[in-house]
Amino acid sequence: EQVYVEPGRRQELLTLLRQGRDVKDFESQVYGRDGDYVWIAEHISPTLDENGELQYYEGIVVNISDRVRAHEAESLALSLVRTTMEAMAEFVAVTDLDRNIIISNKAFEDAIGVHLGDARRLGAKGDAPELFSSFLREASLHPNDSFRVKGSLELPELPFSLKASITPYRTAEGKMVGAVFVLRPKNPSLVPDGLC
Question: CA–CA separation, 141 vs 131, rounded Å?
């Protein structure tokens, strides 16, 4: 009777054990007793004889189904956020409370010159265009978990001014974990086609 959903997965595990290696976090999908799928993580230590042959192994198996489902749901939600942000004409970025970019759309990255892959911190001198940095320093967090933004943003790279809104980014429980920055042209008629 096959326990592992993926054919050959048990053989992979046995190969590692026959090499005398301790196995930690060996994640697999298996068939549950009632035929449903269960995700497990195995932590196993082998015992070899004097000839290097596997005699037996012992360890524990942990049901990680809830963790895997939560990760899959998080990945789906992030994918939906990315798709939605890319469809927006505005320049959008989500940051953590230290202003590290978590996600941004291409319009934001191209206009501001700060790319997610750069792992830059917004608002830190030298990490973003100075005008943008000083603008972000003016956006201050208040005790009631709201943001105050002063003025508009002028970037020399852009032939138009931007108005900004900054909204708290919250967990499902309501805890503030970051901010959503949305930058819009003050006068959309000045924006070249294709930029926004």
Answer: 19
Count other C-beta atoms under 10 Å from residue 37's C-beta. Answer: 11
Structure tokens that stand for 69 in this block: 């489902």
Query: Do the Cβ atoms of 163 and 150 come closer than 8 Å?
Result: no
Q: What percent of the chain is modeled with pLDDT above 90?
A: 37
CB-based burial label for 162 (10 Å; 0-12, 13-18, 19+)? buried
Query: In whole numbers, what is the pLDDT of the chain averaged over residues?
Result: 77
Beta-carbon neighbour count of residue 78 at 10 Å?
A: 12
- Please tell me the distance from the alpha carbon of residue 140 to that of residue 196, in angstroms, as a whole number: 27
* DSSP 3-state of 13: helix
Q: What is the pTM of this model?
A: 0.59
CA–CA dist 123, 39 (Å, integer): 42
Q: Where are the beta strands (DSSP E) in the chain?
A: 23-31, 37-48, 54-63, 91-96, 101-104, 140-141, 147-148, 153-154, 161-170, 176-185
- Name the nearest CA neighbour of 81 among 101, 98, 104: 104
Kindly state the helix (H) or strand (E) to which residue 113 belongs, with its residue range.
none
**Pick from 65, 35, 59: which is nearest to 47 by CA?**
59
Supply φ then ψ for residue 61, to 5 degrees. Answer: -125, 130
Long-range contact list for 120-129, CB < 8 A, 24+ apart?
Answer: 122/93, 122/95, 122/181, 123/99, 124/99, 129/155, 129/156, 129/157
